[in-house]
From TrEMBL:
PANTHER family: HTH-TYPE TRANSCRIPTIONAL REGULATOR LMRA, TRANSCRIPTIONAL REGULATORY PROTEIN. It holds the Pfam family TetR_N. GO terms for molecular function: DNA binding. Residues 5-65 form the HTH tetR-type domain. Residues 28-47 bind DNA. The keyword Protein biosynthesis does not apply. PROSITE patterns: HTH_TETR_2. This is DNA-binding transcriptional regulator, AcrR family. SUPFAM superfamilies: Homeodomain-like (SSF46689), Tetracyclin repressor-like, C-terminal domain (SSF48498). The keyword DNA-binding applies. Keywords: DNA-binding, Transcription, Transcription regulation.
Length: 194
């Protein structure tokens, strides 16, 4: 990696938590310079504008979450256990290097729904990929006889994601860990009943 690429990566890594915690609108240029220790000129010498930094930061945050889930799923032998890896990860999220501020899809979708079309599009694409990944696990589990053939993979995938995202939102909003635990127990039951 050349110096320009390293600098760009440094900017993304340092600003990704800021964008994920404060959101696009809440993140100022001062926040970016404070996070990186670089000048405005250094940041904008590597990125065209704040939008470009925010989009790169979102992709970085999504990659962090995706890698955590991928690693946990890879340890499992059955498709049911691969789905239950979500329960394990989100019940024990402090044991994993999640991005500061929580789920980047939830954070970005909530903020960028009407104010930032490009970020909204990236969040929608990330959600679609997640849905497709979970639906694929369910489809394969049906083929292997682990799940009922009457299971609708897309519907089940959307329900699993909605429960996870709702759990994150409720727990973040209330600060009540026992809510998270109760919701994750419900998700575990749902997966076991597929």
């Amino acid at each position: 990696m050349n110096k320009a690429a390293r600098t760009k990566q440094f900017i993304v890594e340092k600003t990704a938590p800021v964008f994920n915690e404060k959101g696009y609108a809440g993140t100022s240029l001062t926040d970016l310079t404070n996070a990186t220790g670089l000048t405005k000129g250094s940041i904008y010498g590597n990125f065209e504008n704040k939008d470009e930094v925010a989009l790169a930061a979102f992709e970085y945050n999504i990659l962090q979450v995706t890698n955590i889930i991928r690693q946990e799923k890879a340890k499992q032998e059955t498709y049911r256990d691969r789905l239950l890896a979500y329960v394990h990860v989100y019940t024990n999220f402090l044991k994993h290097p999640f991005p500061a501020g929580g789920c980047p899809i939830l954070n970005t979708a909530t903020e960028a729904d009407d104010t930032h079309p490009a970020l909204k599009q990236r969040a929608a694409e990330a959600m679609s990929k997640w849905k497709d990944s979970v639906a694929h696990e369910i489809t394969m589990g049906i083929r292997q006889g682990e799940f009922s053939p009457q299971t609708n993979p897309e519907q089940a995938a959307l329900t699993i994601i909605a429960i996870i995202e709702g759990c994150i939102m409720i727990t973040k909003l209330t600060g009540k860990i026992h809510y998270r635990n109760a919701i994750m127990q419900s998700l575990e039951t749902l997966i076991n009943e597929l």
